Amino acid sequence: MPIQRFLFRYAWRNLWRVPGRTLLVLALTGPVFLSLLLMLANSDALEGQIDRLESETATLIQLRGRSTFGHINQAGGLNKLMPASIESALVRLPHVIRVEPYLVAIEPIAGYYMTLHIGVRPGDAQRLATHGEVGGVDLVAGRNFTSADDGDDVALLGLDYARKMGITLDNFRPGESMFIKDVLRDGEPGVIKVGTRSIGGRPFRIVGLFSSGYSFGDNQMFLPYRTFQRHYGAEGRVSKFFLRVDKAVNVDTVTAAIRNQFPELDIITRADGARFISSALGTMRRIGRIWLGATVLLAGAMVLFAMLLAADERIRELGTLKAVGASTPNLAILLISESMLLAGLGATLGGTLYAFFGEIIGRSFFKATFGVYLPGQYGDSLLDNMLVSYSLSPGLVIVLVIATTLVGGLGSLYALYKVHRLSPVEALRS
Amino acid sequence: MSQSIFEMRAVIKRYGVGVTRIEALHIVELDAAAGGVMVLAGPSGSGKSTLLHLIGGMDRANSGELYVAGNSLHSLSTAELTVFRRHKVGFVFQAFNLMPNLTALENVMLAAEFAGLSSKEAKHRASALLERVGLTKRADHRPGQLSGGEQQRVAIARALVNRPALVIADEPTGNLDSKTGAAIIELLTSLKGEQSVIIASHDERIAAAADRVIHLADGRIERDEVPGGAPQKASV
Ligand SMILES: Nc1ncnc2c1ncn2[C@@H]1O[C@H](COP(=O)(O)OP(=O)(O)OP(=O)(O)O)[C@@H](O)[C@H]1O
Ligand SMILES: [Mg+2]
């Protein structure tokens, strides 16, 4: 259609009549489109993370002694815990592909703080005593346990726990020693200190620091499994077992088998973990969606404003066009083209910025958006954990095209209303 | 009786509502032979533009019958009026009303493209018309680079590009000096025969070149004269 082509060329020229205004609109919409892409990349990765966590919790079963939290130093003592010997029976259950024994002690320290000391096998996930179902913690300094560490006096320390002893990410040196007072054996809660002086215990070397994102999680400490057993005299007892089932559909079968063989155990499955995930990460999912809508509305409003000015100051011209034979659809094509071009240029600018600086801006953007809703350092550690791709994929280009269409369509609404009502005579007299 | 380009009966156009309502035009009967030059004369506010807008299909009368180039305008829809404007009339304005960011050639082509001509045909016709108005060398200039007289010649080329039966010009020399105006008058009156031309103007020289001059006063026909012939009494 020649007229469409002609109108499109004309629209392009109209765009540059007031170049300052067009450039201003681009300077404003470009970053808005950029934020759209960043939000998509981040929420895409976040969705992946949610899926991962969900599938992780979906196939995980936690076992504890009946009505206990599994602390080795709780009232009733070690007898209330599960015997370590049942591990071999658990391993043999059909569909069970991994069994991780877990030991935990609760340790009051000076100032009425509670800390948790946890024993895990090197190679198993460092699951917090709280929310352990979602997987292991993220190391932020130092190294993880190796199989050579099992039985050695080494520890991984939460950031908050470390801070209370004067250790920060800045001054931490791997291998630094600390002394743990053993409440079980030594009776009174003690002050745990870092230094060379032994306070009723043996020195432990801190090989790594971890972050969980919340204060209680960061007041926990991991020891290698055998080290823990020896230190607390907990040989032969297990606080918890974490069982990995091959498929989510087999969880009920496995649960039934355990209930049958070990009726004295508490069995905890997905529900609790799922609740945590759906509340914390589900919020972010919603934020992402709201952001997408807000982006389109914001960019649309900017384009709308520019088009509003353009239509008002060109009303005589539009009237003349009608007088010389332009139909309302002709003028609609002209104005929609202008609005689309404006939106498209903004999207191109945003896309270009994204292609070059997406990686750099993306991280701070994550902190400024999702990060706000995440406790503490979780914003950083979660992002580090996620595989975020900041490349301008074909999918994102399609999103830009759709967004351009929406923004352009929205942006031309006022102008379209104007030309629809426009009488050529009125316009010519004005 | 020769074929007429337009005929109107009992046409009334009012503006405003309530106490501000005025009857801007009231034509009991008027028709014009095809191929002539008709001039609308009369003081400011007498209804010249109003009448041109009705004949050109740019506005609607409140009542009455109006036939232009074979179309009964009073019964056309808005979309049909657009089609009528495209093909049957060419409009020339006092302030030229060219699109400032299109070249002279594109301004002329534009009207042809609205009428559905191919770009090639539109360009061909537009170039020929620019040649006819003596602006071949200025085809690629924007209106801002042209003088008032040149702009009005581009506007006339635009009015002619769809080969309309009727060319309507509202004060075409109003923004031009007298020498430039004379050339525009000559150009418009030269269309006679091929096209019917209606011009609203205070310019005495246009009246002298016309086949017929309608004097309007307060929206009514005061006098209907044929220069060189005997003045006819207006039918009231
Ligand atoms: N949109 C309008 N609303 C109200 N009154 C109008 C409108 N358009 C025209 N009029 C009135 O209608 C009458 C005729 O106006 P018109 O423009 O046709 O006069 P004209 O003869 O063309 O005058 P001029 O020589 O000044 O161009 C005038 O009284 C004018 O004020
Ligand atoms: Mg007038």
Q: How many strands appear in the DSSP assignment of chain B?
A: 10
Distinct small-molecule ligands in the complex? adenosine-5'-triphosphate, magnesium ion
H/E series of chain A: HHEEHEEEEHEHEEEHEEHEHHHHHHH
Q: Using the CA coordinates, give the radius of gyration of chain B.
A: 18 Å
CATH homologous superfamily (4th level) name of chain B: P-loop containing nucleotide triphosphate hydrolases
Written account of the structure:
The complex is a heterodimer of chains A (430) and B (236). Chain A has helices spanning 2-15, 19-58, 87-92, 159-164, 183-186, 225-232, 251-261, 271-313, 315-323, 328-368, 378-385, 394-411, 413-421, 424-429, and strands at 60-65, 82-83, 96-109, 113-120, 138-142, 154-158, 176-179, 193-194, 203-211, 220-224, 237-238, 240-245, 265-268. Chain A is α+β, with helices and mostly antiparallel strands. Chain B is α/β, with parallel strands linked by helices. Chain B is built from seven helices and ten strands. Chain B has helices at residues 48-55, 78-88, 104-114, 119-132, 148-160, 178-189, 204-209, and strands at 4-15, 22-33, 37-41, 63-68, 71-72, 89-92, 166-170, 196-200, 212-217, 220-225. In chain B, strand 9 (212-217) and strand 10 (220-225) form a beta hairpin. At the A-B interface, helix 1, helix 9 and helix 14 of A face helix 2 and helix 3 of B. Magnesium ion binds next to helix 1 of chain B. Adenosine-5'-triphosphate binds next to helix 1 of chain B.
Give me a quick take on this structure:
Chain A has 430 residues and is of the alpha+beta class. Chain A is built from 14 helices and 13 strands. In chain A, strand 3 (96-109) and strand 4 form a beta hairpin.
Secondary-structure blueprint:
The complex is a heterodimer of chains A (430) and B (236).
Chain A (H helix, E strand, L loop, with lengths): L1 H14 L3 H40 L1 E6 L16 E2 L3 H6 L3 E14 L3 E8 L17 E5 L11 E5 H6 L11 E4 L3 H4 L6 E2 L8 E9 L8 E5 H8 L4 E2 L1 E6 L5 H11 L3 E4 L2 H43 L1 H9 L4 H41 L9 H8 L8 H18 L1 H9 L2 H6 L1
Parallel strand pairs in A: 4-10, 6-9
Antiparallel strand pairs in A: 1-12, 1-13, 2-11, 3-4, 3-12, 5-9, 6-10, 7-8, 7-9
Helix pairs in contact in A: 1-10, 2-8, 2-10, 8-10, 8-12, 8-13, 10-12, 10-13
Chain B lengths: L3 E12 L6 E12 L3 E5 L6 H8 L7 E6 L2 E2 L5 H11 E4 L11 H11 L4 H14 L15 H13 L5 E5 L7 H12 L6 E5 L3 H6 L2 E6 L2 E6 L11
Parallel strand pairs in B: 3-8, 3-9, 6-7, 7-8
Antiparallel strand pairs in B: 1-2, 1-4, 4-5, 9-10
The complex binds adenosine-5'-triphosphate and magnesium ion (MG).
